[in-house]
Amino acid sequence: MPSSPPDTSPAADPMTTPDTEQRGTPPRIRTRFAPSPTGFIHLGNIRSAIYPWAFARAQGGDFILRIEDTDQERSTQAAVDVILQGMAWLGLDFDEGPYYQMQRMARYQAVLAQMLERGLAYPCYMSVADLDALRERQQANKEKPRYDGTWRPEPGKALPPIPEGVQPVLRFKNPQGGVVAWDDKVKGRIEIANAELDDLVLARPAPASQAGEEGAAGEEGEAASGRIGVPTYNFCVVVDDIDMRITHVIRGDDHINNTPRQINILRALGHQPPVYAHLPTVLNEQGEKMSKRNGAKPVTQYRDEGYLPDALLNYLARLGWSHGDDEIFSRQQFLQWFDLEHLGRSAAQFDEAKLRWVNAQHLKALPEAELAPLVAEQLARRGLQADERLPTICALFKDRCDTTVALADWAALFYRDAEVPAAALAEHGVAAQRPALAALAQALAQCEWSRPGIAAALKAVLAAQGLKMPQLAVPVRVLLMGTPNTPSLDAVLALQPREKVLRALQRA
């Protein structure tokens, strides 16, 4: 991946620096969004950013963006770009970051070295083959597969001889008795017996290609000896949350199994855990977990498909949180109303038809001066240049549309000639009304080119030809716009150049 901005996150010693609660002062609310750039961020992911962002904004706190890019084989800069672009489009502004975990490796290794010194972690030389064999025996005995503590140092315990050629992993000395518990803001009280948790791997041996570099960088010789290696996800998260002074962790419930392990590490380092809120899964329309594998689209694709950021924010906020029966609300209302007490406990199912409906409501309410630039972007993608007519065009058609793409479909008809198949001309009676269309062309060539002037010309031709408005209006719409259905004909004609209208009528 290309280089990222330098990391400026706090680097206080988590072993010695007490958190704000320990000092007795109320902590400033600090939340974070910590995506992994191993795939393009989709709606299920971005919902996990909306709630911590909203909570920080509602409480006058800070929102931090952290890119958890330790999976270097799968992480890509393109995925990082979609995260940043998607958040910018949705207006999810962050106060700090983005911080990149790969730029903090020296920090993690320094903390690991301290944990080794203080007996909170230990090297484990059990090989992968031996660990696999242990698990097979446990499964055969119908036991839960888990590390058995062979290399865990205890008073009076004799450890096995260190095998040659085996680089150790570092394991955390998890408490062996009692429970780890927390009051989850979504799930309620959760308690896990420590006996259910084995000693978590905190770091794995560095690949041979990295060992020399890490040794040269040096953490008092630890990296060179192979004792520290590459920190694992659960450990990095804990150090990050301490350094960044995170008070509330609001994330998907796929992380809930990590929470007891992270709490134990936090407490071992002398810190109280943050408040946790684990959000239920977002399901796709087939009832499966929303994921790229199951057809989820990158969030930026919704921008390209003509959705409004406030509408998508509205829809996603409602997909797991509620404020009474309110379905449509503004960004400002959302931030005024949002709290953690009304987060839903059940999985929410994505419904694109509902999203389009929500988008249509926001599109109708958006002032034309704000809507027109968005439609102009859609027109530009088609090679069409908007002009000063566009706000009025938007006002005329926006009640018929549910996306800016649909609105641009209408607007495009004002910036190019419609292509009308002969079958459509026949279907809508253009030939039968040629005399009336010729009379209308003559009247429009002479009238004042304004909506009242055009309305008067239409009325005069209808009276002279003995026709009702639909008999004349439908052929005109088809010739000019390629469709029999438009808003009021005089309004549509007034927004077209006179020469273009006359040229269309001549095709009758």
Automatic annotation (TrEMBL):
Which Gene Ontology cellular component terms are annotated?
cytosol
Bias class Low complexity marks the residues at 9-19
What Enzyme Commission number(s) appear in the record? 6.1.1.17
* Domain (Glutamyl/glutaminyl-tRNA synthetase class Ib catalytic) ranges: 29-204, 229-357
Q: Where in the cell is it found?
A: Cytoplasm
Q: What is its main location?
A: cytoplasm
Q: Where does ATP bind?
A: K292
Per its record, the protein catalyses: tRNA(Glu) + L-glutamate + ATP = L-glutamyl-tRNA(Glu) + AMP + diphosphate
Where are the stretches annotated Disordered?
Answer: 1-33, 141-163, 204-223
Gene Ontology terms describing biological process: glutamyl-tRNA aminoacylation
Q: Pfam families from the xrefs?
A: Anticodon_2, tRNA-synt_1c
- Keyword vocabulary terms for this entry: Aminoacyl-tRNA synthetase, ATP-binding, Cytoplasm, Ligase, Nucleotide-binding, Protein biosynthesis
Please give the InterPro entries that the UniProt record associates with this protein: aa-tRNA-synth_I_cd-bd (IPR045462), aa-tRNA-synth_I_codon-bd_sub2 (IPR020751), aa-tRNA-synth_I_CS (IPR001412), aa_tRNA-synth_I_cd-bd_sf (IPR008925), Glu-tRNA-ligase_bac/mito (IPR004527), Glu/Gln-tRNA-synth (IPR000924), Glu/Gln-tRNA-synth_Ib_cat-dom (IPR020058), GluQ/Sye (IPR049940)
Q: Under the GO molecular function aspect, what terms does this record hold?
A: ATP binding; glutamate-tRNA ligase activity; tRNA binding; zinc ion binding
Aminoacyl-tRNA synthetase class I anticodon-binding domain span: 375-508
Compositionally biased region (Basic and acidic residues): 141-155
Quaternary state and partners of this protein? Monomer.
PANTHER family, per database record: GLUTAMATE--TRNA LIGASE, GLUTAMATE--TRNA LIGASE, MITOCHONDRIAL-RELATED
Q: Which NCBIfam families match?
A: gltX_bact
Q: Which family does it belong to?
A: Belongs to the class-I aminoacyl-tRNA synthetase family. Glutamate--tRNA ligase type 1 subfamily.
What protein name does the entry list?
Glutamate--tRNA ligase
Taxonomic source organism = Serpentinimonas raichei
Identify the coding gene.
gltX
